[in-house]
Write a structure and sequence with these properties.
By secondary structure, the chain is an alpha/beta fold. The N and C termini lie far apart (62 Å). The strands form 2 sheets. Strands 4-3-2-5-6-9-7 form a 7-stranded mixed sheet. Strand 2 (47-52), helix 3 and strand 3 (69-74) form a beta-alpha-beta unit. Helices cover 40% and strands 18% of the residues. The protein has helices at residues 6-15, 34-42, 58-66, 80-86, 105-112, 130-139, 153-159, 170-178, 218-230, 236-244, 248-257, 271-282, and strands at 28-29, 47-52, 69-74, 93-97, 118-124, 146-152, 179-187, 192-193, 200-207. The model has no long low-confidence stretch (mean pLDDT 94). Helix 9 crosses helix 12. The protein has 12 helices and 9 strands. It is elongated and about 70 Å long. The site of S-adenosylmethionine has 22 residues, from strand 1, helix 3 and strand 3. S-adenosylmethionine is lined by residues 24-29, 52-55, 58-59, 73-76, 99-101, 124, 126, 129.
């Protein structure tokens, strides 16, 4: 059954006695131009797509038409009868009823997509789990090619910012370490039922084959990145020493080695400079 507008979606949900749960970030897409564009970003011949949070299945149906196979992970089992109806014609879709943060994704991807050439991820996530889920997907070393995800407009600006620019945050560096990020298109709040209080954007993260910088100790690198953005207004020497408990003289030496001024603000550092500090501290 095709549901592409507010009236159809409301009809299906009401017929099943479904009520939206704010705590699960349930704002469902009702704009029939958004789902095809999201699906297009991740689809192709031989492509398997892992979808997170199918909701009423509007995006899932588009993915089903455009890809070889779709596996969708949904936490809210109240959506079972809804998805049975909306995905009745979609024979290449499997639903896993679980919390995405508890699923063993390595095993699921290996078992479900063994006959696919490429694996992509597509999600319209609840905004409160957007960053943890994106970071989990990037850090887990999954065999995925790209991720198209709907995020709050402000999060899109931050995630896709240039490292070293004012719009960047620790998450910008983290995402950039694993992927290249770009905003595909904006989505107004009126595209959802019920409408959220914020506007959104769909971003695309294309996984890198290797990080853009050589880092000797990733844990230390990310600790330094966090420290640089935790106290954005303070100068580098104080920020890193205070947060990581490193002696000033040790850091001074590392900064000199990396050719970086100790009075610069951490948020302005490039990826290469952050890696240089981290590597100098490892020696
Ligand atoms: N994809 C649908 C759409 O675009 O209309 C629904 C998007 S809605 C913003 C988010 C969906 O994620 C809801 O169906 C919600 O139940 C589900 N969800 C929330 N937390 C989840 C979690 N931890 N794991 C899996 N699904 C989750």
């Amino acid at each position: 059954m095709k549901i592409s507008n507010k009236k159809d979606l409301k009809g299906v949900l009401e017929a099943q006695g479904f009520s939206f749960k704010k705590s699960l970030g349930q704002n469902f897409l009702i704009d029939d131009t958004v789902c095809p564009r999201m699906a297009e970003a991740v689809s192709g011949e031989g492509v398997g797509v892992l979808e997170i949070g199918p909701g009423a299945g509007v995006l899932t149906a588009q993915l089903s038409h455009a890809c070889k196979k779709v596996v969708s992970v949904e936490l809210d089992t109240r959506l079972k009868p809804v998805l049975e109806q909306t995905l009745a014609d979609c024979n290449n879709v499997k639903i896993i009823w679980n919390d995405i943060l508890k699923v063993d994704l390595k095993t699921v991807l290996a078992e479900e997509f063994c006959d696919c050439d490429t694996i992509n991820i597509c999600a319209n996530l609840p905004y409160y789990i957007t960053s943890p889920v994106i970071m989990m997907l990037l850090e887990s070393q999954l065999p995925i090619n790209k991720i198209a995800v709907m995020v709050q407009k402000e999060a899109a600006d931050r995630l896709c910012a240039e490292v070293g620019s004012r719009a960047a945050g620790a998450v910008t560096v983290a995402v950039n370490y694993y992927a290249t990020a770009k905003t595909l298109f904006g989505v107004p709040r009126s595209s959802f039922l019920p409408p959220p209080n914020v506007d959104s954007a769909v971003i695309e993260l294309t996984l890198r084959e290797a990080p853009p910088v050589d880092v000797a100790d990733e844990k230390l690198f990310f600790k330094i990145v966090k420290a640089c953005f935790a106290q954005r207004r303070k100068i580098l020497l104080n920020t890193i020493c205070n947060t990581l408990g490193i002696e000033k003289e040790v850091l001074r030496k590392a900064l000199t080695e990396a050719n970086i001024s100790e009075t610069v603000r951490g948020e302005t550092l490039t990826m290469e400079q952050l890696a240089a500090i981290s590597n100098a501290l490892c020696e």
